[in-house]
């Protein structure tokens, strides 16, 4: 199964701090794991703001994702336009864009964010 991973899932995976219910999806070799370009952008911006939950070397994370066979999902105009169809449940623009990517591509979005679970979208809440 293809899975688009939320930024926090990527960060937790990088520091071996995944919750068990998330790890089962990450470790399942039959799953194709995707990360969004938006996640890398979010990490760069929020680490630049010295957010303690985003203290990570974005270059090292990006290279590690590619080295571990994660697939990058680039942002397209179709993805950004899909954001306009989302109800105003969640305010974070990065999460909204990744959710729109998930919906547009028909790929489940793996997240720990309970607010995102309120969207009519293919969400896997861990």
Q: From the coordinates shown, what is the CATH architecture?
A: 3-Layer(aba) Sandwich
Mind telling me the C-alpha Rg?
Answer: 14 Å
CATH homologous group name? 5'-nuclease
Please estimate the helix content.
40-55%
Tell me, what is the CATH class?
Answer: Alpha Beta
Please give the number of β-strands. Answer: 5
Q: Going across the major beta sheet, what is the strand order?
A: 3-2-1-4-5
Mean pLDDT rating? 94
Which residues form runs of ≥5 with pLDDT under 50? none
Number of contiguous helices: 6
Structural class: alpha/beta
CATH names the topology as Rossmann fold
What's the structural domain tally?
A: 1
| End-to-end gap | 16 Å
Oligomer: single chain
In short:
This protein is an alpha/beta fold and 126 residues long. Helix content is 45%, strand content 14%. It has a single domain, classed as 3-Layer(aba) Sandwich (Rossmann fold), CATH 3.40.50.
Could you explain the architecture of this structure?
It is built from 6 helices and 5 strands; from the N terminus they run βααβααβααββ. It is α/β, with parallel strands linked by helices. The protein has a single domain, classed as 5'-nuclease (Rossmann fold). The chain has a 5-stranded parallel beta sheet, sandwiched between helices.
């Amino acid at each position: 199964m293809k899975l688009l991973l939320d930024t926090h899932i990527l960060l937790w995976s990088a520091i071996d701090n995944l919750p068990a219910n998330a790890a089962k999806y990450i470790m399942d070799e039959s799953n194709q794991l995707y990360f969004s370009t938006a996640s890398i952008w979010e990490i760069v911006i929020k680490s630049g703001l010295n957010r303690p939950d985003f203290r990570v070397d974005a270059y090292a994370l990006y290279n590690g994702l590619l080295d571990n066979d994660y697939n990058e999902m680039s942002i397209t105009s179709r993805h950004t336009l899909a954001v306009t169809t989302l109800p105003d449940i969640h305010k974070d623009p990065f999460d909204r864009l990744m959710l729109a990517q998930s919906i547009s591509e028909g790929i489940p979005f793996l997240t720990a964010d309970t607010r995102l679970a309120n969207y009519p979208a293919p969400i896997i809440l861990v």
